[in-house]
Amino acid sequence: MLDIDRRTFIAGAAASGLLASFPRLARGATDKAVDLSPVYDEIAEQRSQSIERIQRWIQQPSISAQDIGIAECCDLTMDLLRDAGFGTVKKMKTDGHPGIFATLDAGAKQTMGFYFMYDVQPVEEKEWSSPPFAARLVDKADVGKVIVGRGAVNQKGPQGAFLAALHAVRAAGLKLPVNLVVVAEGEEELGSPHFSQVVRNDDVMKALARCQGVMMPAADQSLSGTVNVVLGAKGIVYVELEASGEAWGRGPRDGEIHSSMKVVVDSPAWRLVQALGTLVSADGNEPMIDGLTDAVRPVSSQQKKLLDDLSARWDDADWKKVFGVDRWVNDLDERAMLERYVSRPSVNIDGLYAGYIGEGSKTILPHRAFAKMDIRLVPDMTATDVLAKLRRHLDRRGYKDIAIKNMGSYDPTDTALEAPPIQTQLAVYKAAGLAPVIWPRLAGSWPGYLFTGKPLELPAGHVGLGHGSGAHAKDEYLVVEPAAGKKYLGLDGATRSFVDFLFAL
Amino acid sequence: MLDIDRRTFIAGAAASGLLASFPRLARGATDKAVDLSPVYDEIAEQRSQSIERIQRWIQQPSISAQDIGIAECCDLTMDLLRDAGFGTVKKMKTDGHPGIFATLDAGAKQTMGFYFMYDVQPVEEKEWSSPPFAARLVDKADVGKVIVGRGAVNQKGPQGAFLAALHAVRAAGLKLPVNLVVVAEGEEELGSPHFSQVVRNDDVMKALARCQGVMMPAADQSLSGTVNVVLGAKGIVYVELEASGEAWGRGPRDGEIHSSMKVVVDSPAWRLVQALGTLVSADGNEPMIDGLTDAVRPVSSQQKKLLDDLSARWDDADWKKVFGVDRWVNDLDERAMLERYVSRPSVNIDGLYAGYIGEGSKTILPHRAFAKMDIRLVPDMTATDVLAKLRRHLDRRGYKDIAIKNMGSYDPTDTALEAPPIQTQLAVYKAAGLAPVIWPRLAGSWPGYLFTGKPLELPAGHVGLGHGSGAHAKDEYLVVEPAAGKKYLGLDGATRSFVDFLFAL
After folding, report:
1. Is this complex's ipTM strictly greater than 0.85?
2. Is residue A233 classed as helix, strand or coil in its secondary structure?
3. N or C: which end of chain A has fewer CB atoms below 10 A?
4. Which fold is adopted by the domain A3-230+416-504?
5. To the nearest whole angstrom, how far is the Cα of A231 from the nearest Cα of chain B?
6. Contact B373/B386 with Cβ under 8 angstroms?
């Protein structure tokens, strides 16, 4: 869920060019510099295999919402992990699509965790200029040579670059400086409803407890080349509210009836509308669910400083253009908007339905009405508490009959700027002459809370250079080779960024 | 639009059996009794042709909402009118589907108007037990032999019975005692958006001005045999409200965006929900549109008396069962419910839509949201005034950007109990031993206001016996031959009821 934000919530100053070989940074097991040039050579050498690996992964559809190719893609992902050197690769049953638990024992003192997902969003095939599962190499004007396909950037492409890094290290005859643990799921695009069943497995918990953090491979450069580093993400409560005559005991019980009856028959559609109206302020912008914001942690002075930095590098006009938005809520300026973005919860209507919505008129009194809603959570809110508060809020107002269906909810994640994997990441980028933008938090959501929350309380974040776009949309792509003059990296550079990160840990 | 109500808003006491030949009633041109038995004989004689005529009419689909078969059905309807003796049959162009204006000059002193419609509702073919345009004769358990098809009761069947009456009169060698004027439209199921262009034509207005009223052929008997006589119908304002980022200048302008943006971007979906919430009371039952009920005419003492009568013959449990409703609004008892039903306006949500409403979750902030709504009007409300009040209500609350699309609206109709066509109808039914239930008004709507309103100010209503059901729904039917012991009439009886009415005028 995070990716659209990461992809688009991007603007601002340009950063400098390509990564170069550089000495291993502070927190490794040794102070000796490691010469990574043989690895870089292998990366260039293995380019075509790396591209083919990503293409093969994309060519295996894995649409979790429609259960298309999930079993096959789970097996393929396990094969790809084994090929990359993971000694143990286990399929983890859940009540939904299976997860994966894999370990690579490098005999190192340190261990690092990575989060993978192997599912992708649905496609509207006719909208694509290149078929979504063909994974074609395409020359994209003013961007470069790209792989077009569903999963190209979210997340098969960046994960493929990560695996390419492991292949290159091995081919160069080097030993990985860290052991690796991968936990993967096939339901991220569904809101990770069963991923806790993977993470909470005893063996997995033991392996994760040894990790210094859990990172998600990413392609974190914007079109302008800016590198984004993210310290946290919002949690989410995704629910479907339903008002029905059957549950209410008023209004039509079994089916729609003629609308002329409204004068004497109660309406579940009106009931839903009136109940929804109590959840936000009149302008639709302030959550009004009783007690919802009680647990919101104030913005820290460190975060204020990061927001000042963010704001200073922010191109507000550019960002508004990306979203097709003319003004922010309450006509906030960019600094205030950014603070609100990272620090406040939101209550959104994702979908609304009742009765007849086709062409023309149909005079009916619908017997049911529903709303799909997401509530985004910031620390120290929890999904469990928010669900309870939503229920209580409705109950107090007499809406006990309105059903709340939890469609996949989880807590916010929060990682300290000082956390070793974050500091390592920043050091790697800075050593390469890049000037990352640091986000205290993105408003998107991913199940990182399973790592950052109790009992593991690990740092978690995203790492990786390169550029791609179109997650959840048509013509999703990952850049293999940037057009001339571009400041983001291609596949080789992205692969190098993972090597650099691992050797800097 | 009226028919579902008429079909289903029915219960109560049984009435007596078949019509018999009876003397012409008071208000004719002559006091002499007319022996109608030769006409009745012809009705029986022509039964198969009459059935075939209705079948042919149904077999020509004429779905106005989808523009299916409209042109062909207009021509067919004109042919059927000519065959039945109408000397002048004109197609009347409108900005939508064409209307029809037909006259039959019987050389009589009196003239009677009739309203026809030749369009039908859409079908969900797979739901039908017999194809909707096959017009098959089917033995329906506990009902009798019926014609099943779209339009069977709404309105091709009753109109077919009316035409059969004219054929039988001519075949019996009798002269019609009244001249006839028919005005027809092909957009009743769309809310008659252009029917005024037919009625307001100079020639049509002149012809209608000579009429003593305008009646709609119907099959006004319930399953229990009760005959319903209706003095009026509610008016309707059917609108589509739309909130959009584009019109608002806030929120996403061009398309949906990621829902995590809600925290800083305004939501048209919330805007619509909050605006809708101001239109009714918290329980969804009382219209709160500023000034909406100002023009509501109080219930008269005559109407109170009619409501007492209605209530006395009312089977509340039966009616609740028909609608699948356990209680009326405010837990009203039947007398209070009936008074509310006939005398109060209502504000209904017919449809509600925004964003993603498919399976599972999709995290989006929709750029538009809409509601289909109908407001039912009682005298002396007018559609024009209500539309203006709705606009003003929203404007006053700052919702100027919410678009109101008028999808077809018209005024209520009201005809006095004392009006000659009503009294004739009652006399005919009573002479046949039937005890009609008189409704001061139904909550359904039809464009009768074009006749009852200025400048014509004619009585208007519905006339005709027989039984059918399923208007707007699957397996619509008209009874051709009732099952044993049933108290409603079959096609012959329905046809006789039109003959009786015409000769009693």
Report:
1. yes
2. strand
3. C
4. Aminopeptidase (3.40.630)
5. 16
6. no
